[in-house]
Amino acid sequence: MNILEIKNVVKEYENKKALDTFSINIKEGRIFGLLGPNGAGKTTLIRIINQITAPDQGEILFFGENFKRKHIQDIGYLPEERGLYKSMKVGEQCLYLAQLKGLSKSDAKQKIHYWFKKLEMMTWLNKRVEELSKGMAQKVQFVSTIIHQPKLIILDEPFTGFDPINTEIIKNEIIALKENGSTIILSTHRMESVEELCDDIALVNSGKCVLEGSVEEIKQNFKEHIYEVKFEGELKSEIEYFDTILSENGHCIFKANDKDQTHSLIKQLVTQVNVTSFNEKLPTINDIFIKSVSNE
């Protein structure tokens, strides 16, 4: 089931279309990567989903219903530009933000205690935000984003400011949130995070969705029939129907001249060498991103 459907949305600023008949579907219980170069329209889309601004045209459905103000309670949003009150104590601020999202004071305190203990943040409760490092403040805001157990979580560059250890901690929490039923929109320029976390992606460019689908399907659609082979022995004759991209002792990379020649490659190899490893090399999300944007 789709948790969110964006249908032909248009948003214009000063006669420039930030979104131009933009459409995507986001499935429930998955991690959805929202990708695109700077100025592509991602921020405008996120602002519309959070009802910070409204579309000029188009339709938005949340679990099949017309998108309304009440649905904001089911959304958690971690903006790229962080917005904590620097002079407030961390615990007081989290309590305030949790209550804004509809939690009672007692439930909010309970959940704050749970998350701060889980993420080893208990000693921060009585500190002011201005005393925290950028990474520590980021962790606090992450907790404030998810504390009311939203159905849809929007994370805009969530790993900014984190060292590798805390990046891994937050990645694991994102996966756990998905496993517990949350749907996550991940907007990031870190393609390695997209590869690791996302089930589906949409690529935004010049206000349009130029690519959408599951990561696996998109990789299959962009593959170039390149194969990496490791073997024992020596190749003594050329491999027909394939270009050799790399050749070194026991390791070759071949590119097919015709996509239907895979069996021919294997057949030719096993007559000459003992094949120990045979893999098709699929393009990375970064490769696909660059190719798709360059072709626009």
CATH architecture of the largest domain: 3-Layer(aba) Sandwich
Q: How much helical structure, as a percent, in the residues?
A: 25-40%
Radius of gyration: 24 Å
* Unreliable sequence segments: none
What topology, given as strand order, has the largest sheet?
6-7-8-3-9-10
Strand content: 25-35%
The CATH homologous superfamily of the largest domain = P-loop containing nucleotide triphosphate hydrolases
Q: Quick one: overall form?
A: globular
What fold name goes in the CATH topology slot of the largest domain?
A: Rossmann fold
Order of helices and strands: EEEHEEEHHHEHEHEEHEEEHEH
Domain count: 2
Helix count equals 9
The termini sit apart by: 31 Å
Round the mean pLDDT to the nearest integer and report it.
91
- Report the count of strand segments: 14
Largest sheet: 6 strands, mixed
* Class from helix and strand fractions: alpha/beta
